[in-house]
């Protein structure tokens, strides 16, 4: 659940796109904390008046997107999200529901959207892909070992929830030699997903339900030396290591009252999570010194480090009083200096910078041909 579920939320609380690694959503939002600047409503007229006019020479660029240039659309149709750069910066891996695939599968493509390759087995539901060091293999989560079928979506009649599917973590070749699994990294009943790799090239961080709560864990690249990083009751997930591998950023939700805790545990017993409020957290790589850098009561998700290790990109619905529209923001690692960087009047999320910081890839409903369509875009990043 690092995130693709958010992608369709621009359409009046439409059901989740997928159970993705960074997914989350909030149904309400409160005032922005004093450590952040106030963000205006996502009303298009307000954006245009406050943030400036669109650029005719860059038609996919929206008012206020001052750091983006030369936006190009990479996918055209379906539900596409969570694109991550290869270590070389020359290729992307992502998840997509498209064509004859009934649920998310893992693909890779060139930076211009060409040479699309199916990398997962083509069975089960998959999520949360990431290149392993050297770019010869990719890491992803999948339910295919349990069943070739796509697991059912949760019942949204009770409200918006995430399903904690029975994912395990696998590694496969990145050059698509028959999509054979190279190795299985977890073999544990329940949820193991949301895995990313330290830039130091030595450890994987992921989210698991193995000890009864939803916590962060780390392990070696071969699956050994498993360590639990978070222990406080509540959801912790969508983690990424800092560029030097010494810190982590992630999203977290904490029950605040006895009723909240009872509700959280009742849903967890059914392998469900209700992500109404998520805050962005930073901690040491071993989980110590954890602290929030947002406290706005919104659904904040998909945090990703800048190469400088001092700033973070993330998506949030904090700018929409109705909690329906998500934009992308950047914030300093001490919680100051929050500002909008991607602001379409529909969904924007999953911001990821290339290793050298020159390009940014993100998912958006902008330019959609059909309702619920979410595509991937790439832009040049300028300071």
Gyration radius (Cα, Å) is 19 Å
CATH architecture, please? 6 Propeller
How many structural domains? Answer: 1
> What is the highest CATH level, the class?
Mainly Beta
Describe the main β-sheet briefly: 4 strands, antiparallel
Shape: globular
Task: Give the N-terminus to C-terminus distance in angstroms.
Answer: 30 Å
- Coarse structural class: mainly beta
Number of separate strands = 26
Order of helices and strands: HEEEEEEEEEEEEEEEEHEEEEEEEEEE
- CATH topology type: Neuraminidase
Beta-strand level of the residues, as a percent range? 35-45%
**What is the number of helical segments per DSSP (H or I, 4+ residues)?**
2
Which strand order do you get reading across the main beta sheet? Answer: 1-26-25-24
What is the name of the CATH superfamily? Answer: TolB, C-terminal domain
Outline:
This protein is mostly beta strands and 383 residues long. The chain has helices at residues 44-51, 258-269, and strands spanning 68-73, 79-85, 91-97, 105-110, 117-118, 126-131, 137-142, 162-163, 168-173, 181-184, 192-197, 203-208, 215-220, 227-228, 235-241, 247-253, 272-273, 279-284, 291-292, 300-305, 311-316, 327-332, 339-342, 348-353, 359-364, 375-381. The strands form seven sheets. The protein has a four-stranded antiparallel β-sheet with strand order 1-26-25-24, with no helix packed on it. Strands 2-3-4-5 form a four-stranded antiparallel β-sheet, with no helix packed on it.
